[in-house]
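[SOLVED] Need 3D model of a two-part complex

Original post:
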Amino acid sequence: MNDAQSGQELYFKRAPVVPRSIRGPFRNFKTAVLLLGFAVYFLLPWLPWDRPGAPSQAVMFDIPGRRYLIFDLTVYPQDIFWLSLLLFIAAVLLFFITAMAGRAFCGYFCFQTLWTDAFLWIEHLIQGERPARLKLLRQPWSDRGKLLKVGLTRLLWLLLAFWTAMTFVLYFGHAPTLLLEFFTGQAPAAAYIAALALTASTFLAAGVLREHVCVFICPYGRFQSAMYDPETLTVHYDRARGERENGRIVPRAGMRGLAERQQAGHGDCTDCGLCVQVCPVGIDIRDGLQYKCISCGLCVDACNTIMDKMGYPRGLVRYDSEVNLARAVPLKPRVDWKRLKVIGYGVALVLMTAYLIYDIVHRQSFEHSIQQVRQPLYVVLSDGSIRNRYQIRLTNISGNEEVYSVSARGLPPGALDLGNFQEVRVKNGKSVIIQASVKLEPGTAARTGNFEFVISNRRGETVTDTARFFTRHVQ
Amino acid sequence: MADNVQHKGAQTTGHVWDDTLQEFNNPLPVWWTYAFYLTIVFALVYWVVYPSWPVGKGYLPGFGRVSYVNAQGQTESWHWNTRAKLLKETQEAAVLQKPYYDKIASLPYDRLAKDPELSSFILSAGKPLFADNCAACHQSGGAGKIGFYPNLTDDEWIYGGSFEKITETITKGRHSYMPAFGEALEPDQIAALASYVLSLSGNKADPAKVALGNELFHTHAGACFYCHGDRAEGRQDLGSANLTDKIWRWADVTGAADDAARLAAVEKIIAGGISRAVMPAWEGRLKPEQIKLLALYVHELGGGK
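Solution:
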């Protein structure tokens, strides 16, 4: 039996969502975040930054140089721990905000939301407000006007998508040089592949898929339910006030004043549908909390506009919690943070952030590794004494040329031989390998297990690292 | 279900088995067919763009070129092929190594060994060079094998441990031998010599045999002093072993289980001699600067002299 026979469709063809634009505080906030986010993202690669011996670009992910240059901080591959900590912090911050104020990230900060907003702004600019766009949608493709308008919209989308991708690529090189190389065909293949892939995915995600990304692709939209509490603030429709006993009703003659409506048992909702029209994911907030809602607050702006026009009190659709709405007379909505979960997230957030900052500030100005030469593990010398060898690798990340000295603790005097490198001068960002050999009398060798290498620089920074001495076991 | 055997509209091949079993002749799905045609078009384009068919004594070379500047500063160019791509990558690496090799070729040994950057390069570049050319005998860490290949990590240098001597050894190779005394001397004389040799490096031995061995060693009866020297410390110009130190090159004294086994190990060398002490010459196989780098690397392995 197939779909046609059973009379059921496995896939509902979606009606395109054509959101109406709206004014209000939430819209203003979203616009502010959008402008700030775009300004930072698109301009940051062009911000110059003076640093000695490295490209003068404020933020640059220098992959061939194995380093990230972020303002005055240089991140090396061995600092990968910071990245994982940063991701942990970001995740907990997300949980923290979600437990208090729902999907604030989805509604205001997610790049899917930002770029969809920007694409919608272009669409609105070329094709006009919602009715005009709906009309255009119904027209056949043979219509020249439609072809021109839709074509121009898509072209602008493509330009924005391309510049988004291009900007991403520019973070990975010296921006002016890379841009020039890109357009003269000199840039590395990775730059072209990344630019192409990101242009395509930006165009698709923000232009074509839009709310489908949130509904079907993004996992966060689905696990939000596990993070919501009855106390969580999110966008709600005040059903009790909007419907009363006899439901919502259009404000026709005799049903315009609040008193008249209350007397007839009708709610404050005028069923104007504006909250549905402005919704970027195409839902009706009056159906209650639903997984498609990204908490962008545009329906709040829409409803308040109508309430003002009708002279009704604002807040029929508002940020509120389930607990508060269940009350006979709801209190003023407030952020409820006095919950174990929220406090726990908060404490974890503070601890992790503090540790990350501490770790970055207190980073050693050099990296070291000591490896025992294991082939052979020990050597018998002509006078019968035993020699072990160690390779000490020092990497200077201090930002300046530096002199390091190596010594040993727990060995008899004269046992450690560093050849020509008791002191070694290392340029910034460079590594040096020092061969250390330790020579002990057979008797001393048998008694010596672990000892310590002491590496220090002229600033007084010192690290010690344990090493092991191996010898032959004489029966 | 038996009612459903009549599929109207579908072509059959006309074959029918067991009354109702028919072979349908359905067309391939359209997407599949076009994907197939597309692969044919792709193949045609590929044949033109990339090297493909043999033609006469040659082949279609394709359009792509692989060009690069090699370490000597010459531009090389090939039709596109994976070997040329490998050459390009290796030459790009060689170009990056060139400034280091230039310094190695021009600077004196001790200045190279004292420069931290060059010294680190010598350790890094020496490792694969040693692994490719030397490790087959001397083992990857240079520890060699007693009875076969000398240990390069100890402080005993058979032919000298200076930079110049190591370079000479690698460049020209070495060849030395020790005659077999099995027929010239009696077994008890050989045992006496072996006891004496063991006693030189502090091993336990019968004093009477040591005294006899001492005499044989230093007279024309045994004539050992001729190569190993009066003090049995060996001669680096001949490559004869220093018998007074604790390092054993041929007789596995350190690995022997007891005194009898130690004695037997040394006796075997005296009686049988040594004929396989050959190190090949690397001149012509490696460039002079590579040999110089290896000499520095090997010098560092043993702590040098």
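Edit: Chain A touches chain B at residues 373-376, 379-384, 387, 389, 391, 417, 419-421, 424-427, 430-435, 437, 472 (CB under 8 Å).
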